[in-house]
């Protein structure tokens, strides 16, 4: 079912918004002005409601202001007495700053100075507002908010009075109004609301171009290229933004349909030059009679003015040079170019320009479903909604159009006021013959290509290669004499895209256009065409034996034919192909061929025969020129063509004979695919496959043997043996291949990885001797390191060397004999545990991607750190994974995503830790990765039991006391992972510490508290440095509300959504305590701060409060040591007490006592401050708008998922995760891994200044 909702089209609602005081001017001046504006075709908003209700502006007024291109503010005597007028004024001035709205103040019988200084009637009105509004508010917070609002009104009046406006004093009203209308018309550039094109679904491109036009960050002139396939909306978008923003420039020009006009008229380009010169020049004397002279005149104009130029439909670099010249532009100028060839504008480079232009690109890809529905409904039903009953046929039309605006418009207009039956008939016709109006527009890109080779390449791809691998296509077509270098040209002209995994992608209408070009070679006789890609037509040609020499490619897949087309299984004679001598590409899927294969076309390059019925390949099949052979889903049992050679070569002969490819049955074969062949048992004869580059043998459950001759296919670059479950070992000779870049062994039943021999150093030999000595004397090896134990055990059990001790000097041990040239290795779903990996993988020196998905590993294997170039590591769906610690620093992508789900399943992962020098990382994971207790992703979130938190850390937070009840457990609900009972935890994320516990009273370090859900205050003067802010909530909480902290002074906002979603507790009072680490850049003396709780039940919040935390003046408020106590550190006879005492002091005070008795201060916050993505650090990935940040740990994972907040719209779409701040990485490196919790038997108690009782293994020791 199609769900339809009404959307607003992406164009301004009004040309002009009128802001006025009704009692002064509604029935006189404003009424006359409104009608004059409307008569001038300026769409104007006038509020007819004279009654002001409520404290805030009505939503329709806000929408009208934001949707207008200009605002006229009629400042009359009683204007300031209306709070609505003042609110309108504030919003209008905001739009002036943010969106460039044109603002024209009209001083209607008032003095501008009275407005600016709030004197006379304006002063009286402002004083009355202060008195009335402030007296009505008894709550401190609300009084503060009112005072802030009045201050905004005052600033707005001052600002508007300083703008260049118009004074009505002494003017005739009709002349004055005419002057205002003329001024607005001129400054809007004459492009009014009614003349702008109607656009749907273009909000994002409009926002992008608007931001680009208003960008003044550099003094350069900028060039923007808008590209996309024909009919996608390039011209309409360019015309729209030009009409919307041309008033921001000294001069502007829109030159439309340049390539078409140049082709249609001999002097077409000269006419266009004249139009451009007239638009940017004040002179009306155009005396040039040739394009060169005219270009010189245009260059002079472009150098002297800040201009906006739109050049639509450029298709050659000569057109750019003649229209823009080569001398450059005035600083701040903007040039928009629409073209079907993306790279063309980049070749435009002015000679010695005043400023070098900066190039940007915008690619239009079509409309989404909602915008497509709206456009279709608008043109087919003249409505924003579909007519009832048309949902299914509309869906079919949208599937055909794939978001193409022109196609939707053309078909919708042709179906206007038509019945559902007529819609269905139209859809059926489109399947047989495309609409010529759509094809004509799309074919312009094809026709403009100068190279016949590129046109042939396009037709081949449109007919046969959409959805295939780019490398696969290039290999086949290069062998057919097609130069595939032209693929760059197709991409530039938006005829083709290359998607993920190098897959060729083409818009359905573009593909249909390409096939239509082939169809029109011979509309009524398919056999005369160069290519046959329609299964029905191919079957007809073959059954009637009408093949001709014109046919270069023929595809037939009987499984795609409709049942009524087939009369049982398809059986054909091999002779039907004998009349096609130029046939190069042949696909006959699930076709029974009878007869001799010797008459097959000898020029075949690609042969695809899925479901081949025989158990072996016919020897009379001419395969000498085959480049690709696809026998997937076949009944083949053995693939080994070496038996066709009456004298199989010896090992010495193999390499020599491989040099003579013409003597090989498959000497030209580069791609072999035998996937899903359930009967395939063995694979061999590789010396016949000297040119083989890509081998696909996946999902062959019977395959148990691959010949050791695989090393004779020396050109292999890609091997896929995935899910051959009966394959117990791979050939040892595979390691001899020098060019293999990709090896996939997913889901194979490998019992072991083959090992190869290399010299060991003396240290490893000694280890081996010890191991073998133990092995020969006892059956236990429990004391051996697990990775070494596994490696040596594998080596011994594999019989690679005897156990005699006199052979130990020749031992070697390293990774499996895998090709050292590997770049991508996949071992997914192979039942590999940590013990399955060797100690060292450094021999895979070129490896960049490693996939270990679905394996029962519990931690990241240590050997992965020996991979010198690894960039991508995937451990998705590793359900037993507990930790990932210190992955290689070269890693740029880590995938821990898991789609496994069962009721009550809990993710086991508890710790992810990184090295300080780690590069920025793309972390791929799902929300269920996160756990509610004893969990850490270093740099993102750290959760630990409160009893493990050092007391020195709590003291630094200003948390002098935390009075927990005896019940130290709580049930928490987190993200999407259900609930879990755990101890009370300390949470740390984004520079914010927090905890939740049961208590009846607020902590004593909270200084300001109230019973409301908002607190406002000004940071007071204090003699110590501000360290942070403590904020607490007490109430019957079951869900932690979002906390919004705003620094009004610095215009900074942080919206924090806690990691824990809710609690499962009885109606008991809970305390949520948090500490926010703010620095001088975020908060300082005199800053106005407002804290709000969002989405919370007011009746559940009993109280909230805050307190400021300051430094003590010295790093720690710890003790000083007297001389008697120092002896425990300086006297050797007390050395056994030194470490336990030091651990206790460090835990409590955050200091260390050195050997000489001196104290070394250590800041317990230093490590937490070293994290990168914290307040005061890099929060750019969490920025909504400038200065406003939405902080929620789940959004670290938004590379896969959208934000948890439905309204969150981040400036950056993805997060590049970096654990530590670059400036703090050395601190992290020093502190990381230095945690020492001390012996388990040590308990401590602090009494007085430093009177400590230690209980060490039940032996009391009195100190102090």
Automatic annotation (TrEMBL):
Residues 12-188 form the TIR domain. SUPFAM superfamilies: L domain-like, P-loop containing nucleoside triphosphate hydrolases, Toll/Interleukin receptor TIR domain. Keywords: Leucine-rich repeat, NAD, Repeat. Transmembrane segments: none annotated. It comes from the Eukaryota. Coiled coil: none annotated. SMART domains: TIR. Pfam families: NB-ARC, TIR, WHD_ROQ1. GO terms for biological process: defense response; signal transduction. One of its GO terms (molecular function) is ADP binding. InterPro entries: Apaf_helical (IPR042197), Disease_R_plants (IPR044974), LRR_dom_sf (IPR032675), NB-ARC (IPR002182), P-loop_NTPase (IPR027417), TIR_dom (IPR000157), Toll_tir_struct_dom_sf (IPR035897), WHD_ROQ1-like (IPR058192). The keyword rRNA-binding does not apply. This is TIR domain-containing protein.
